[in-house]
Description:
- The protein is α+β, with helices and mostly antiparallel strands.
- Helix content is 32%, strand content 21%.
- It has 5 helices and 7 strands.
- The protein has a 3-stranded mixed β-sheet, with helices on one face.
- Strand 4 and strand 5 (125-127) form a beta hairpin.
Amino acid sequence: RDQGATVFMTLLAAFQVLLWRYTGQADFVVGSVVANRERRETEGVIGLFVNNLALRADVSGNPTFHELLGRVRESNLRAYSHQDLPLDLLIDRLRLRTSADAAPFSQIRFVLESHAAEKTDFAGLSLGPFPVEGPPAARSDLALYMEQVGSDLMGTFIYNADLLSETTVLRLAARFQTLLEEVARKPDRRLGDIALERASEQEVPEGFVEELEEV
């Protein structure tokens, strides 16, 4: 609230820190999506208007989390101001080469879904969430999907099993939780000084950093 940032911006900033800490890369892109329903005339239209966004991360200079959050906020606001531009049109204008095996701009994805209500009733029609059995197919090398239900936050990591092992991703998830706890407790500490491992955590397996760098 002090930074004028949303929950999405805060979680995205923490995810960027995690990626930076393991890859050493301070300038990269994380893909996300927007509902793309900003226009009043489309409010009553049934259909999918979701558009993809490319959000640039800048973790250079070992900033504090407060400083990074300010960068993320400005970067996101710039991206949102162009959210109506279809990603396919941008790819075409930039004359980028695309592949069926890789998403354009980034193979890392972050999405936050908010559920205001578990069930909605109107005009004799009842609507509610429908659970889907089994994990969704990985469309990126690594994706973090988070859900906000009331005051609760839940996260799901989806990954390419050809690049990342289950052990790697489980440890990544545990360290993301630790990171969130640490930046909430001391948001003005330099990000490089934050310990991601708990005292009981074992040493990082050999090849862990290199495995993430492939992403």
